[in-house]
Amino acid sequence: MEAYPAPYVQHELPLVYLTGLGEQESGSDTAPMPRQESGSRVTTSSETCTDERAQQLLKELMKHDGSSRAWNSEALPGPTASLKYRMKPISRTFNLPPRKAAPLPQAPSEDGKSTPPRHTELHSTLSPLSPGSPIYPEGIMTPLWFTKHQHSVPSLVIAFFKVYGNDNAARNEQVQTDINAIRATLGRSGYKTRLSVVLLSDKSILDAPELEEHISAIRRATTMDPKTGLFFMPPMSSSAEIATFVRSLLSTLQPLMVEHYRDLTKHARRKKARGGSASLASSVERGGRSLSASGWNVRYEIKQGVFAEFRQEMDVAERHFSAAIEELCGSEGLLETKPSWSSVWNDARLLCDVVALRVVRCQLWVGQTSGAVISWVNYKARTKDLVDRRGMGCGTYGWFAWESRWAEIMGQLIRRASLPAFQPSDEALPTSVDLTTMRTHLPPEKALATERIAPFEQLHHAGYWFVLAFEATVARRAKALDISEEDRISPDQTPASAVAQRSRNYDTFLAPLPHEEFALPLEGGHDHHLNILDRLAGEASQEFDARGQHRSAKRIMFELAQELIKATRHSRALNLLVPLWEHANSGDSLWDNLYYPLLQATHECALHASNAGVFLSTAWELLSFEGSQLSQSTKSLPDYIRDQIPAQEKITTKTNASRHLSPVQISLAFVEKETHVGELVGCQLSLCSRTTLGAAPLIVSRVDVVFTDGRTVSILHENNPSSASARPIISNLPSIPGSETFASMKADLSLLRSETRLFNFFLGFREANVVRIRDATIHVGNDAFDLQHTFDEDNLMRSRAIQVEKQGQAEHYMLPWSDTFSVTVLPKPPKLQMIMHGLHKQYYVDERITLELELMNGEEESIDATATVRQTGKNDLPLSIQWNEQDALGGEVAVGKVERDASRKVAINIDAILEPAMQSFEIEVRYFLTSEPDTPLMKVLVTELKITRPFEAKYNFGPLLHTTPWPSYFNLSAQEEEGKAEGLPYRWRLGADVKSSAEDELSIRSADVLVDQVSDSTVCDVAESDLTEIHALRTNETMPVESEFVTRKASLDDRRPMEVELSLVIKWTRKEGTTETTTRLPVPRLQLPSSEPRVLCTVEDDASEEDQVILHYHLENPSSHFLTFALTMEASDAFAFSGAKYRALSIAPLSRLRVDYRLVVHDRDEDRGNEDQDNGLWVWPVLQVVDSYYQKTLRVHSGGRRVRVDEKRGLAVQVKA
Fold first, then answer.
1. pLDDT one-digit tens code per residue, 567-579
2. pTM
3. Domains and CATH numbers, the chain
4. Strand order across the beta sheet in which 985-996 lies
5. Region (Disordered): which ranges (predicted)?
6. What percentage of the chain has pLDDT greater than the value 70?
């Protein structure tokens, strides 16, 4: 857009003058206005507001200036209070341009009197009707008209004044005078510019009430509208308050500014309807020329469109601009009626370009993206048709200059529009793929969504249009090169007739003249075409890179470099080509057909620019291509380099196969997949020549192969005087032991065209690991240069086959694995044997484990060993393992020297494990042979231990009768010893059925009950166990264990229940072992009542009678209350009893009573069947004991031997036969 006058392409914003806050220099380039001999001058005498608050106010007002904002509806929205402006701070004195031109001077008549003018109507100074206008008499528009409304005729003047209190009445009166002077001057100017006044004060009305009277006096004296004409700004302490005041001020004044441009639109519409040429000057005065009616329509359509832009009504502006284009290009338009060689035709064409530019800008503003592209295409086609018919045609450099400019304008408009869809997004991508969120093109708008839109008609980003401009500039340069030498000579050295002929042969619309377009010779080597191409390529590349289109960016830079090469600008071209060449990948689809031209161009530029490093690298790559200069030469590579670039010092360059080609390919394969430390593994290295050299061989000076274990193998070139046919097919090189980290060998490394050389060698390794080929490097050079080409593992030539020589021929041998670039180095196989003695299938909780490890040396010589034991597996329980050796340190023990075929034993102790678990531990023995102390060997033995519980127990519990008499309630402590428990003694029975869950037979040596914990003030005494013999317990067998204990409270007054925690402690050994193990089985917690009444039953035989027993029922009252019980003995068919069938008993506190019954068993045969193995008979007497007060039935418990309780049938008593 720089080719057009700046006012033509500038965006329209309402112009606002700010006077009274100081003047600022305008940075915008404006067209100079003609000297204003008339006009209106505004002069005021009040002082300028320069304090800090005024500067903050000016800063906030300038934030609403939209001159540098993007050209889109979101950046400059149209709703009220959101419009942006062109703010222009000016001084107290400023000028307004004249509204009308001065009248023409009248010639005097013969009698000395002036002749009355024929036309008395005056017109604008920029009207075609005014003789002093720059477009008089038949011009349409001038950039000065745009400048006038953009910078000289404001829609609003905001004047700022300070007001004071009573002590400054003269200053307040001066404010009134200045306001009236401004109003009067604006009224005389003829413009409908509005005026608003802002009064600033250092005090608020609350602090200085007299200010309200002064402000009212100013309003009455100036007749300013209190709503839109006069504002008061009290002192404000923060910038936020000032910003709020400014927004409120502009929101109030915005309708006034919009109305100003609406009035101008109405005026232009009326003049168009009236007809612009109704009152013209005489044809004599105008020289017979005048603006046509079509020209007047164009003028007023443009005016209405511009005023609509001022109002930000872009859809309305686009309609007026489109109508102006139709008028210009119509059959009656200036472009069809005026001759193409006239200045009026060129001015009309320039104006048409500007209007078309504004049409596209308006469509982008309202979001008609595809519509903007269609308008751009249609106007280009219309202009091409116009130039073909009425101009010089489309085969001139002038046309391609316009075509390039028109494409560049589209790119600039898209940039200035800053469409949100083309901007980067702040949201993060949902995936990790490195893509950009900026779109490359936009879909058509809704109005065109149902129509078939070509891909070209969808709006693409600015880079696409810069590429079109670049291509048109290339065509322009090609046309410029066709300019004849006569036309390239400066006009001051050419006859006038020849110069006149040039204007008829060349289209110079907004383009240089032929001698400027392509001067002869180029002055100082300056070529403006290349500068334009450089600028356009840079702009396009920037846009493509911003959207991740790196291929397009590289393509346009490559095309620029080609143009620079055509212009013999090799240094500049090399600066562009080297980055492309260094980052280009010959396997990339972008460079499928371009890599060789890129390489050839870089090679040529490096030669002309004397860049030896790039020249050497590209020459190396060109050896891979047929048709290159090297392929057609019989010289060797060193001779070619020496002839082309005689270097003063040695050239060194490095390339990589991941980016650049190599005429020599490398392949290396291990012939075995696995090997062991100290053993040799075969390797085969192949060099395959793809060089295009004819007779001269390619000599590789050195090949370096680097492995991942840090070793490097180098093969140096050694001349072989024998002919190529006499050389062996496969060269066998010396073996390389594992002790060498760097090894070098010599071989013949000369390669003929399409020849493959094979080299075999053996490698040894010192450490166990997976060894891979890290990279391989080819060195080519001599004393003058050194080229290094590196192949990473991914770039090496892969092959699953090696070649073996049979009968003088090479045959392929397929390897049975795919990864031939690696070999797995296993540790040296140990011959040490490890045997664990004393290991059982199962171990038990609380058992201490003792094992013995035997190390048997099966090596060919003595060894020195160290053993380490550690727990393995995922188990939360730690395993305590110790070596039973004096010199053991933690988990490691030095076994020491073991002779050949000898053995050594080491004991291991494992502490008892307290919970069942699966435990495992490993013993790692590291040793080395006496002859190879640097080669460690290792043997590992993993041992698993299954830990289970040896026993399971089921418990039964009940009370027993304690035969000790209870103390008297009436004399409780008289007979008690001091320090002895005074509570009532209770006797209890605990029975356990111990079941073996071990797989082995265990010998039970003892089973005792131990007291773990009792409640406070409680004494618990356990009787000794009656188990005196060792009991053998097999798997799933059960052994009964009976025990008794007595509890007693420390005081009779303690009525709390007793809590007792017991454990069953079993001491046992394995059947064959002697080490005793103690296993503790917890007994569930027992809660024993101490103050509740109970009934116990014991039995006594009657010595005088057979089948008779005496039952003793003991009723205990441990409470401190008198209790009454009702006793009822139920009759039975199995026995007869003597005693009270029903009776009531009262029991004193802390006392015990006994009730006896004699039972006689009936002598019945069916009863004899119920006898047990002890020749006794069980009978089931039922005695009900009911608490008379609580009506609670007490349960009868067994109080001794021959009495048992069944859960279903109740109490049973054994009667001996």
1. 999 999 999 999 9
2. 0.70
3. 6-24+38-97+153-274 (3.40.50), 305-643 (no CATH), 651-826 (2.60.40.10), 832-942 (2.60.40.10), 951-968+980-1088 (2.60.40), 1094-1216 (2.60.40.10)
4. 951-960, 985-996, 1038-1049, 1018-1022
5. 20-50, 65-84, 94-132
6. 87
